[in-house]
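Q: How do we represent a protein-ligand complex in a form that can be generated token by token?
A: Start from the inputs.
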Amino acid sequence: MAKPNAPAEPGNLKDIIAHAKEYGFVFPSSEIYDGLAAVYDYGQMGVELKNNLKQLWWRSMTQLHPNVVGIDAAIFMHPLTWKASGHVDSFNDPMIDNRDSKKRYRADQLLEAKAEQYAAAGDPDKGQGLLYRMAALLGAEDLEGVRQLIISEGIKCPISGTDNWTEVRQFNLMFSTQIGSVAEDSATIYLRPETAQGIFVNFLNVYKSGRMKIPFGIAQIGKAFRNEIVARQFIFRMREFEQMEMQFFVRPGTEMEWYEKWRDARLKWHQAIGLPAGKLKFHIHEKLAHYANAAVDIEFEFPFGFKEMEGIHSRTDFDLTSHQELSKKKMQYFDPEINQNYIPYVVETSVGADRLFLAVLCNAYTEETTVEEGVEKKRTYLKLHPAIAPVKAAVLPVTKKDGLPEKAQEIFNLLRFDVPTIYEEKDSMGKRYTRQDLIGTPFCITIDHQTLEDNTVTIRHRDTMEQERVPADELVGRITYATSFKRIFEQL
Ligand code: ATP
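Then emit the structure tokens for the protein with adenosine-5'-triphosphate bound:
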């Protein structure tokens, strides 16, 4: 979460944001009009990386779990969906404004930042106490109490330096719009704030059409929209973002077993795509959402600290029961093993594609200083897992003459049908290697005069910069194997 009292962005994040823009990963939305807060576009490299992450998630969910299937529900849903899910009544964040700076904050985040300050100053109990008091006030909907707590804690606006705070108000995070062209016929509908409900409302359809047997899961990737009060930290908190969610339907009473299984499986998945164990941790929720009986976040150590990347929630039968009540359709499963009808319990895994992208990018961004012949050289590269890198190989003839470009084109044509490959003949080899390093291309294939004689090429490995000579005939096999999702699947 954005911490208003902390400096805007840590240095390293600034470098990563600049890199993402310069090399075509992420651009601010509608930048020519000075951008739109908390909305971003993915560029030519970013879209490839993001698609790889989504594909990897999708395939590991549906391909490696024979009892998980996917759907693609619409963004617009019947408005009663959001009544049943509780979003209309309680998808709120408490906001507060500073009258002098005219800046808006999330009241809970101001207090959380204060609690962190206590912890950092060696008094974590005081911080915990503050968090408990805040939770009690929010639970009792005592918004004036929250305001008083902010004032009594001496919390000031970091911009104006004053505590001239307005009252605290609840702010619903859903975007609404009108559906229907004629004013009298139009109705208010919402842009979905989570993809999960598209799965719940299709539970019966999938269960029946797919002849599914519990336990089974339904996975979905799609856009979600939240009118976040404070949007900072680049693509960590966006107003339009993408979620990858899976709802796993189980027999009541077995949900804890499945919750633990999915929690561990998801942690392993993040490690398999290259996120180091030391930068990942669980954060168990003590205060549970209205629908959950257990919840844990997988946090990643971003440049601004450990923050939520994925949530694993045991959602009980809350959603299906609410939909049953409001729609009057029976959301039941007949379990032939115990000869009973019941509303299944649900364990959810929910990861933001953009937050995962940011974690992967932050982890891959590497600045190294090497000393070559007494001269210090700085090298920046993206140490991406080869399976998710936007470009897998670059084919580079050492010169533009002597038939090398023709030979290189031949090799390029060999590779490009199997893996995303770039061909480049402009500039020195050093410059071309650097360009590939900056976008994280794991393999550079160099074509030289020896290639013409014995049909061998050199492969330069991005991370070690080591080169090896291999027969051109082996290239397709080697590169497709090294960049295949299978390398990741094998670890799961
Ligand atoms: P936070 O506490 O950070 O607001 P949340 O607990 O509300 O997150 P969930 O509702 O559990 O998040 O959503 C599941 C996942 O969706 C999160 O773990 C995160 O990866 C992603 N996500 C949620 N909100 C955003 C957002 N505004 N921008 C980008 N990703 C988001």
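The chain has three domains: 3-74+192-362, 92-172, 384-489. Residues 1-9 have pLDDT under 50 and may be disordered.
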